[in-house]
Every structure is written in structure tokens, then in C-alpha cells.
Amino acid sequence: MVSGARTRQTEPVKIGILTSGGDCPGLNAVIRGIVLKGDKVYEHTFVGIRDGYRGLVEDDVFTLPRKQVRGLSKQGGTILGTSRMGPYGEGAGGAERVKEVMEKHEMDGFIAIGGEGTLTVARMLHDEGVPVVGVPKTIDNDLSATDVTFGFETAVAIATESIDRLRTTAESHHRCMVVEVMGRHAGWIALNAGIASGAHAILIPEVPVTIEQVTDWVRATVNRGRAPVIVVAEGFRLAGEDVSAKHGVDHMGRPRFGGIADQLSPVIEERTGIETRSMTLGHLQRGGVPTSYDRVLATRFGTHAIDAVHRKEWGTMVALRGIDIVSVQLAEATSELKTVPRHRWDEAAILFG
User: Catalytic: which of 23, 39, 51, 140?
Assistant: First the structure.
């Protein structure tokens, strides 16, 4: 068979695609991978679902032809839009409403691209008979069924570059810098960006640390003639003290975090006497173009997701295991978060102070 020829083995189907939850670099590369392979190899057709599950609830669906995904692999954000609305919210209609909209548009199934919240909803819909395949997306890298999620490597690269830049101004002014990165319950971004940038302390949700230990690291760094740089994940809490930052809850009842660096900075300055400034990187870590690694991983996830659809492997999610893409059950992907093991933090802690 000539390379690239169509290999249709069953009748073409119509598949919906949605991106839900927080955006991240690589979403468009997944969409491109799905549509290009689905059209070229299987002759499937596609519809875009606007703003995640909102589009399935409010019937906001549009045709997604191949020409509309050209050149998308390098583009940040998502051409489909996203939201944190779910079909199980009050008045949303649940699985029955989703089935109704899918039937209206003759969708044979849909692909949900998202993180733990998005894929939990996908599992719930599958349990009620909705045909769905998942693709893991989160900069937090906290989905247990896959070695890596796309978007994570880009977020770490952005955080590392930002910390490198902050270090130069910290050294110039002999200040302590506390840099806050994303990570509600998992400290993978903080750990990797902290190690890569040579941080003098890394504070993550998985490992409570006392303020005394933090200030000891700061003093030790100053005593060596350096300006301390502390990297802290947004979900970190000081051991034994009520110092954390929360801003209400999201649509799934999960706490919104942010601002822990602002709370830590004055405490560190008061206890050490060194001028301390804070910086919250926030949504910078979600924006911009994906790295080459994330473009490749996202594209592979997309092409393997349409393979899973073609095989009618509903209720599964594509995942990276080693260097291979495999399919796992959505229940496995959403049963628990993948948090940083203590030994990984201990490896980094040797270098603190």
C-alpha cells in the first residue's frame, strides 16, 4: 500500500472534539493530530464543541474541516475555546442532555481533552452510555495513568526562564525572591523548575515545611554571599501554621489557590531581616506557544486518540508509558492524583540553602 493512502476498514463516523478546564500549550496540536489522521486515514468527519462541556449542554457545535486545523501545532491556547462548566451542574441536564445534543448533530462519539476534572466528567458520562475517549491535558502533570501530560514541559520551561530572570535582579539588590508557580495538590512544576533554575528552596504541597526551616535555608544562602530564591507551589502550606492562600472554590468544589508567595514574603523578611519580594507567575505558565516536546507529544496523543475512536475503545484515555502511547481506562486515569513522591523532593533538598 502506498504510504499515506486511506485505509478505511469501517464506515466513516462523525466525532466531536472538546477542550475543557484550564487551557495549556499543545491543545491545538492535539486537535490537529485528531482531524488530520481521522480525515486522511479513516475518512471520519469532525465537529468542534465550543467552550468544553458548555457546548454540549447549550448546543454550541460547528463543523471542523481539515483546512481549519492547518498549521495549528505551534499555536497556543485552543481554537475550540474552553470553560469549567460541566453537564452535571444545576440545570445542565447531565448525560441525557449530552446524548440529545450528540444525536441532533449525528455524533457517533466525542473526544474530551482535559485534566482530572474533565476526564472525571468523561468517565461519568461513559458510565451512563455516552461514547467518549479522553486525552490527558494538564500543566500540573498530576494524572496517575500517564507518565507525562502535554503542557507540563512548556510550563516548566516558562517557569525556569522566569526564575532565571528574577535571579539576576535578586542578586543585584541582594534580595530574597519568593516565586510562586502553579500546582494545587501536586508540586511537579515547582520541583522541576526549582531544580532546573538552582533554587535555594522548593516548597510543594506534598511536603509540609516549617517557617524555621525556610528561614534557615534563607540565612544559609545569604551567609554564602548569595541572594536566596525560593520556588513555591500555589498549594503549599507551612507545617503547623495557618499560612496558605485560597480564593473560594471552583465549579467542582475544589479550592482556588494563589497568593502563597505574597503571604510568605513578609514573614521571611521579618524573621531574617533580608529584603524579600514575591512574584506569582500565574497564567503565564499556561500561555504562549508549546515547546517542541509538547508539540510532538500532543500530536501523538491526537493521532492515537482517533485510533482508539476507530477501534470503538470508548471509556478509555490515551497515555504515555515510557516512549509508547497506550490506552487505559478512564477510571484508572481519574482514581487518584499523581503527586510528587517524598524521595524526589529529598533528592532536591540536598541542594537547598
Answer: 140
Q: How far apart are the C-alpha atoms of 207 and 118, rounded to whole Å?
A: 27
Burial of 46-56, coded b for 16+ CB within 10 Å and e otherwise, reads: bbbbbbbbbbb
What DSSP designation does 137 have? Answer: B
Sheet containing strand 316-321, edge to edge, reads 61-63, 45-49, 14-19, 109-114, 132-136, 316-321, 324-329
**Cα–Cα nearest to 278, from 292, 296, 294, 258:** 258
Query: Cα–Cα distances in Å, from 40 out to 3, 46, 108, 131, 311?
Result: 11, 12, 18, 22, 16
**C-alpha cell recorded at residue 81:** 475555546
Tell me if 186 sits within 8 A of 206, measured CB to CB.
Answer: yes
pLDDT for residue 274? 93
Q: Which residues touch 173 (CB under 8 Å, ≥6 apart)?
A: 227, 275
pLDDT digits (tens, 9 = 90+) for 26-64: 999 999 999 999 999 999 999 999 999 999 999 999 999
Global confidence as pTM: 0.89
How far apart, in Å, are the Cα atoms of 155 and each of 48, 76, 116, 317? Answer: 26, 12, 17, 22
Residue 328 carries which DSSP code? E
Give me 70's grid cell. Answer: 492547518
Grid cell of 172 as nine digits:
543585584
- 140 catalytic per annotation: yes
Evaluated on CA atoms 343, 344, 345, 348, the torsion sign reads positive
CA 303/CA 299 separation, integer angstroms: 6
